[in-house]
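Following the same procedure, backbone shapes were mapped to integers, as reproduced here:
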Amino acid sequence: MRRGLRTGKKSYTFDDSGGSAGSADVSSSASSADALSVTAVTRRIKSLLENELGRITVEGEIGSFTRAASGHLYITLKDTGATLDAVMWRSAAGRLAFSPQEGDKVVARGTLSVYEPRGRYQLVIETMQPVGQGSLQQQFEEMVERLRAEGLFNPEHKKDLPEYPRVIGVATSPTGAAIRDILKVLKKRSPGLLVIVSPCIVQGPEAPAQIISAVQKLERWGGCDIIIVGRGGGSQEDLAAFNDEGVVRTVFHLKTPVVSAVGHEVDISLCDLVADVRAATPTEAAEIVSPDMKHLRERAVHLRKGLTQALCMRLAEDENRIKSLMQSPVLKNPMTMIEERVQRTDDLLERFQDAVTAAVTDREHALQLMATRLEGLSPLGILARGFSVTRTENRNVIKSVHEIKDGTVLRTRLADGEIISIANGQIESAP
């Protein structure tokens, strides 16, 4: 089989079977100056493929799959008759909603190009989806695992609902059964609640973006105590908008507590898992967020009755206590208590005076004893018994006769006076 490539005024023919190739306009004896380089041929083939085919959609089975460290995916697509090399750059691979595996049947959309260093054509994949009835369920399960690994469903992120909210925001279809059920229950249970409806479609390709916008409007307004987001039941495809990753992440990041009311009891969505509280139905969601005013009134009546009974019992107890006090001797004759205290004071004062007198007497007796002892030790007492003390004129006590010289003035102290004498003559020592 032969194919032609026209460039300018020259036309070249390529033999697909690997045989020789000839020129339609140039003889076999043409000079090498007229030949194309391998790079030029490859680039022109690349240009032909890209411009001729443009974007194409290919269905096939993944024969081989490699994820490079750079994040790019290198894939071989195959069927029973051929194989096709493909590459998916990291930017496109990051948007995949599933994890490709060898053997998966997929539908890939992209452009054909040529990898010049090897001269091989390949499909540059922009989007890729699995083929088959189970693809939605597969994407759902993989998204659940990915979001769970990020911690979006962890209990510690759940916010408590206020016990007595004043404003309820609802993001749902304004014409669906869900909003009618919610308003009916809220009106019955809490007529005074203010309900703000942020309308959005809840099914179809445009639903995720509208749901995100609806809850964000309620959040920006800032007046809602609780936000209900949801719809009535349906198939998995009907609930697909509430499994959208953008919706799930938006609900997770809301600061206002969120109640998810998506579907019936048997239906579970990712929005249910990420919300602060899950309600099986919109009706249950309205019951969860609204206090039952009838029940509260009954409770208030019961509490009032109990409070009245408690007050009556307290008053009766106080009355009995007052009567008992009034019968006491103190309240009957208050002067009795005063007179007892006066008598006790006099008794204490008398005992105090007796104690002081006894203490003073003891101290006087002790002083007399000490005075007698001191008097016995006094020099005057010794002199009174016939002794004397002789001193020099300088008041120095004479302790030895050797201290006295002839002419020394002596002062001799007696009990009743003093004798002044002058030493004259020989002084003798005692034998």
User: Anything to note?
Assistant: Residues 140 and 243 are 7 Å apart (CA to CA). The chain is about 40% helix and 25% strand.
